[in-house]
């Protein structure tokens, strides 16, 4: 028998052993993922089909919890509030991040750019609880925002921004935008650093101005980075909890109630574990419905 044939047989004999060895190394991670991610997820789906207070016997209700989710005005409005927050958590940070990154791109290696990046990224390293408390002070009746308005003669506009029915949700959105704009700016700035400078030189030779360069070179080249920014910020808006809980606790009334906070109140205050689980499942579906098209759009653009 020839040596090459014996070699192939030996490699085939070693292949199953190598596969099992690979699974053996991956086993701890797979077990942890199944225990702490997949099992709770499946249990949440199961609980959503029951009427259960978390302690006593549960009663099978089928899809009644989901039906109530669509017919209960308070529950449904919490989902609408989360979608309104997308404008502030995603729209403003991405647009503002593009503008700031394009502005400081030419001085990216200077000391001024380093200071700008540090200042912009600072909200990301501040705990969200601390950020919520700080903004609660700034937006209070006697806070800095109202003092500035009074100083420029706009005292009639002063109010408790987080306690007013008309301004509470936009005020929470401003806090979220402040937290996320630095992250978006740095991601977009990193993407701009990968663009070939010769493209800009060629565009200038053809007479293109800054706006034309931005629309024809910068924006198309940042498709993947913009996709990442939109994905992260949309998830932050739909799954928001910390900032809302610290700043308004869902009030005044239910004007700033979001699904994450509603799930918390249903499960731990009102003891409606089944209803809270149904809302959690709906939130997961909404996040996937928003994120998957964004990821698909980004992937197609990279081909």
UniProtKB/TrEMBL annotation:
A Pfam family: BPD_transp_1
Domain ABC transmembrane type-1: start-end pairs: 79-292
Localization: Cell membrane
Keyword terms: Cell membrane, Membrane, Transmembrane, Transmembrane helix, Transport
Record CDD domains: TM_PBP2
Highest taxon listed in the record's lineage: Bacteria
Transmembrane residue ranges: 20-42, 79-102, 114-138, 168-190, 226-247, 273-294
Membrane topology value: Multi-pass membrane protein
Entry similarity comment: Belongs to the binding-protein-dependent transport system permease family.
Protein name as catalogued: Carbohydrate ABC transporter permease
UniProt source species: Actinoplanes sichuanensis
């Amino acid at each position: 028998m020839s040596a090459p044939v014996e070699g192939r047989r030996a490699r085939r004999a070693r292949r199953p052993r190598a596969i099992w060895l690979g699974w053996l190394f991956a086993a701890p991670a797979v077990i942890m993922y199944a225990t702490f991610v997949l099992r709770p997820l499946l249990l949440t789906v199961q609980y959503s089909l029951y009427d259960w207070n978390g302690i006593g016997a549960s009663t099978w209700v089928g899809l009644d919890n989901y039906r109530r989710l669509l017919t209960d005005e308070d529950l449904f409005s919490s989902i609408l509030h989360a979608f309104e927050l997308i404008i502030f958590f995603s729209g403003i940070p991405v647009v503002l991040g593009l503008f700031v990154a394009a502005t400081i791109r030419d001085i990216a290696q200077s000391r001024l750019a380093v200071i700008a990046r540090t200042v912009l990224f600072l909200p990301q390293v501040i705990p969200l609880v601390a950020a919520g408390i700080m903004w609660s002070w700034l937006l209070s009746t006697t806070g800095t925002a109202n003092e500035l308005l009074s100083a420029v003669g706009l005292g009639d506009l002063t109010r408790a921004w987080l306690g007013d029915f008309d301004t509470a949700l936009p005020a929470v959105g401003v806090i979220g935008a402040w937290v996320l704009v630095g992250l978006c700016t740095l991601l977009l700035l990193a993407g701009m650093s990968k663009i070939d400078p010769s493209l800009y030189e060629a565009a200038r030779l053809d007479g293109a101005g800054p706006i034309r360069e931005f629309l024809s070179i910068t924006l198309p080249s940042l498709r993947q980075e913009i996709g990442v920014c939109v994905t992260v910020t949309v998830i932050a808006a739909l799954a928001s909890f910390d900032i809302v809980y610290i700043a308004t606790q869902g009030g005044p009334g239910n004007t700033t109630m979001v699904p994450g906070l509603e799930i918390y109140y249903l499960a731990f205050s009102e003891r409606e574990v089944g209803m809270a689980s149904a809302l959690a499942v709906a939130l997961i579906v909404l996040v996937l419905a928003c994120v998957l098209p964004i990821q698909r759009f980004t992937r197609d653009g990279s081909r």
